[in-house]
Amino acid sequence: MKSIQYGNKHFIRVDKGEEIVSILTKFCKNKLIHLGKISAIGAANEVEIGIFDSITKEYKSKIIKGTFEILSIAGNISSGEDKPYLHLHITLSDSDYRAFGGHLNKAMVSATCEVIIEEYEGNMERYFDENMGLNLFKL
Ligand code: ZN
C-alpha cells in the first residue's frame, strides 16, 4: 500500500494480495484520523460481506470468492474504544456484470484498490444501542 496526502484528503493505493479493511484501519490509526469519509473503487477476488438482521439483531455474513469489480466502497470513520471505527459498505459486480453487496468485513485485492479518505475535524464516538443491537453515532 502507498499513500499521499493533499490537505485533508488521503489518496491510498491498496495493492494485490492486501486486505482492504485491515489496511485502512491501520492507516487511520497511524495517521490519527478520528473522523472522516471513505470512498473506493477497485477489484477483489475474495470478500466477506454481511447483512444485519434487525429481528435477531445479528449480522449474518458470507465469504465469496470469484472475479469481482469493486464498484463502490462507501463508509465513515468514527471513534470506538480509543481506536478508529470504520463502518464500510461495498457494492461488487461479478463476471456476468451483476451487482450485489453488503456490510464490508474483509476484501482481498486482486489487482488494485483506489481509496480516498477525507479527514474531518472533530470527534464522533459510538455507543451500543440495546434496542437496535448496533453501535450507533453518539450525538
Ligand atoms: Zn453496515
Q: Radius of gyration over alpha carbons?
A: 15 Å
Instruction: Quote the beta fraction.
Output: over 45%
| CATH homology superfamily name | Hypothetical protein, similar to alpha- acetolactate decarboxylase, domain 2
Q: Order of SSEs, N→C?
A: EEHEEEEEE
CATH topology: 60s Ribosomal Protein L30, Chain: A
Number of strands: 8
What characterizes the major β-sheet? 6 strands, antiparallel
Which CATH first-tier class would you pick? Alpha Beta
Bound molecules: zinc ion
Number of helices: 1
- What is the count of structural domains? 1
Outline the fold blueprint.
Blueprint (H helix, E strand, L loop, with lengths): L1 E5 L2 E7 L4 H11 L5 E18 L4 E23 L2 E11 L5 E21 L6 E4 L4 E4 L2
The structure holds zinc ion (ZN).
Summed up, what is this model?
This protein is mainly beta.
Task: Describe the protein.
The chain has a single domain, classed as Hypothetical protein, similar to alpha- acetolactate decarboxylase, domain 2 (60s Ribosomal Protein L30, Chain: A, 2-Layer Sandwich). It is 8% helix and 67% strand. It starts with a strand and ends with a strand. The structure holds zinc ion. The site of zinc ion (ZN) has 3 residues, from strand 5.
